[in-house]
Amino acid sequence: MNARRQFDPLESAAWLLLCLFVFSIPWEKSVWVPGIGTISRFLGMVALAAGLLAAIRRKWTRAPNLAFVLAGAFVAWSCATYFWSLAPEATAARGWTFVQLLAMVWLVWDQARVEERPPQLMQAYVAGAVLASLATLARYVQNLQTYYRRYAAPGFDPNDLALTVALSIPMAFYLASRSRGIWPWMYRAAVLPAIAAILLAASRTALIGAFLAFCFVIFTWRQSDRPQRVAGVLLLGVLLLGTFRLAPSASRERLATLPNELTQGTLHNRTRIWKAGLKTLKQYPLAGAGAAAYPEAVRPALGRPAIEGHEYVAHNTFLSVLVETGMIGLALYGAMLATLAVFVWMMPFIERVLWAVMLAVWATGVSTLTWEHRKPSWLIFALIMTQWATAFRQDCKRA
Predict the structure, then answer these.
(1) Of 60, 86, 105, which one is at a domain's C-terminal end?
(2) Residue 268: is its pLDDT beyond 50?
(3) Which residues have a Cβ under 8 Å from the Cβ of 221 and sit 6 or more positions away?
(4) How far, in Å, CA of 12 to CA of 14, rounded?
(5) Please, what's the largest Cα pairwise distance for the chain?
(6) Predicted TM-score of the model (pTM)
(7) Backbone phi, psi, residue 144, to 5°
């Protein structure tokens, strides 16, 4: 590696800003910058500017891989739906969001060019998740309910917050497995506030995701040392005890409805929204109703929510992509995910387990959330791309 490039001030500043941006993602809605938006939006703009300057100065950037190309094609198609959208203004806003998310993927892809950098971004995300979890605990202590007897960090929906922090659990165990000294215990300790936040948010889907997150410990059992195994068992015990005994009674009561909702219920009215979306799809099967136009598409069937200012969103990422961008959009999105899955399969064992578990937690969570335009989703995609590339030492000689 070229030492001059490694210690270049502009490159170092761009990397630091990217790490700060990733750190802010789990708690982004809790802090707003006047005239700009969330703190992560502000840091993302600054990080992108620094990253672009660094790329211009070095006069090259990494060539995109297949997953990146497919992500770009999906974004382009989503933007194109503006021309036939049922809600053009919403589609324009969503298209701009997708463009920014693609820029984030490029920034991670361009900056995380060496093997140690993807884990550093995971460290930043885990640290941000700890902060978001502690903010949720603080809200509980102050009895500041987000919804009726449910808690989340300021600005967050409890379901979004719970999945955001659940995604940090496999990362924390992975970082513990590759660290030395006191750091493994620091990463394992980070799982505790995440568990507490998930229980206080009382998100049933995120709870399933949290249990799935412990598959990392199970699948890497033979490769793990004794402290990792003991910590995994103890933390899983905490999650179990929390679900049935330790969490506030209101949280336990809501989480206890999970079996009935899965077998006989409507998943808090989601099945009705899904049926309306599938019915609408028959009118726009190939091109879709337009990115972010799901609320407008289902309005003839569902009307408007009783709560003023609310809209009927899909509550399922894959259905949302299908209805809003049609079969063409879903094909592009699915091809991108399939390519990422192939990347995961090609990685070394520990990394393969990490990202397989991460995708399982993510897929479970987004099955009841509209997350195709959320930063954690695209951060996962970017990290898979970069860790796949660095695992095979691609482009490292130019870093």
Answers:
(1) 60
(2) yes
(3) 229
(4) 5
(5) 63
(6) 0.94
(7) -95, 90
52 and 129: one domain?
Answer: no
- pLDDT (tens digit, 9 = 90+) per residue, 44-75? 999 999 999 999 998 888 899 999 999 999 99
Contact 175, 129 (CB under 8 A): no
Q: Which of 14, 35, 60 is the last residue of a domain?
A: 60
Backbone angles phi, psi at 65, to 5 degrees: -95, 180
Determine the length of the chain: 399
Lowest-confidence region among 193-207, 219-233, 264-278: 264-278
Closest CA to 394 of 355, 332, 345, 346: 346
Q: Which amino acid is located at 193 in the chain?
A: P
Domain boundaries, position 237 = 65-398
For 221, counting Cβ atoms within 10 Å of its Cβ (0-12 exposed, 13-18 middle, 19+ buried), the class is: exposed
Q: Provide the number of structural domains found in the chain.
A: 2
Each residue's pLDDT tens digit, 10-43: 999 999 999 999 999 999 999 999 999 999 999 9
What is the pairing mode between strands 32-33 and 37-38?
antiparallel
Query: Do 221 and 160 meet the contact criterion of CB atoms below 8 Å apart?
Result: no
Between the alpha carbon of residue 362 and those of residues 9, 272, 365, the distances in Å are 36, 23, 5
